[in-house]
């Protein structure tokens, strides 16, 4: 008789309390916050930064897999089966037939997407996994503030029907780039995804407002919320309680406390 212990796994994502809505998941993970603090610290450069980014995205994708992906019952004989007929694992596993498309938004998103792509290939059937590429950049105004985002090129390898469409992009600052990227998939790529999931190291209240307003169907996962420019009395409230007064972006649309230019440091390309 099989052991029924693992037939229904009660996985719960550790999250901080907030008022941004049910599709926003702000993790409460001391280990990931420690690694992210090191990643953002002044003086953290290559090769440490890429190792940390890959580690953080491997852990973040595990959370998404556990929380979002379908499961199926399996019976897997172990190597003990020859000596013990009970040597069969019975329980829930992530369904390997699940379809995934992960999108590399160059350039800071290249390593995160590659990390997710590799782990997805190890967890699911590789023929169900694809990686797309979008070249995107911020457009700056006369005062060097961010005024929008544009796509300079893309390699999209097919439809997204019934797929988990993943956007592993380190910094959710204004939401402008992802708004354009998500719109591209919704209106120019064939098929309807099963779910769209944005995966970030850091997000701001401004980014969350953009996503929940323009794409209320999108799930957002982030390791940290940065709202460091908010008034002290606002910082004393549960995040999202006084959302209109929360601020995580400076006048040039960069995150505070943030982590500086991830793309520049990750690529040793300061342009």
TrEMBL record:
Gene3D superfamilies named among the record's database cross-references: 3.40.50.2020
Pfam families for this protein: UPRTase (PF14681)
InterPro entries on file: PRTase-like, PRTase_dom
Ranges of residues in domain Phosphoribosyltransferase: 50-234
Protein name: Phosphoribosyltransferase domain-containing protein
Organism: Anaeromyxobacter paludicola
């Amino acid at each position: 008789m099989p052991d029924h212990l693992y037939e229904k796994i009660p996985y719960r994502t550790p999250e901080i309390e907030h008022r941004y809505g049910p599709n926003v998941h702000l993790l409460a993970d001391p280990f990931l916050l420690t690694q992210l603090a090191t990643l953002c610290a002044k003086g953290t450069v290559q090769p440490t930064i890429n190792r940390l980014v890959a580690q953080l995205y491997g852990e973040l994708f595990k959370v998404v897999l556990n929380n979002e992906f379908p499961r199926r019952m399996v019976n897997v004989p172990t190597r003990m089966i020859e000596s013990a007929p009970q040597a069969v694992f019975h329980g829930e596993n992530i369904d390997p037939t699940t379809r995934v498309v992960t999108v590399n938004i160059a350039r800071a998103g290249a390593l995160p997407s590659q990390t997710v792509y590799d782990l997805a290939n190890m967890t699911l059937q590789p023929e169900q996994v694809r990686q797309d590429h979008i070249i995107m950049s911020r457009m700056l105004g006369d005062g060097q503030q961010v005024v929008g985002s544009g796509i300079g090129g893309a390699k999209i390898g097919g439809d997204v029907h019934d797929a988990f469409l993943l956007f592993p992009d380190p910094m959710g600052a204004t939401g402008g780039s992802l708004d354009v990227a998500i719109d591209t998939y919704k209106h120019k790529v064939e098929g309807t995804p099963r779910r769209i999931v944005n995966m970030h190291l850091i997000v701001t209240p401004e980014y969350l407002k953009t996503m929940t307003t323009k794409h209320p169907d999108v799930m957002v996962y982030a390791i940290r919320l940065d709202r460091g420019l908010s008034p002290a009395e606002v910082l004393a409230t549960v995040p999202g309680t006084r959302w209109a007064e929360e601020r995580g972006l400076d006048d040039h649309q960069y995150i505070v406390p943030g982590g500086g230019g991830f793309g520049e440091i990750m690529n040793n390309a300061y342009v």
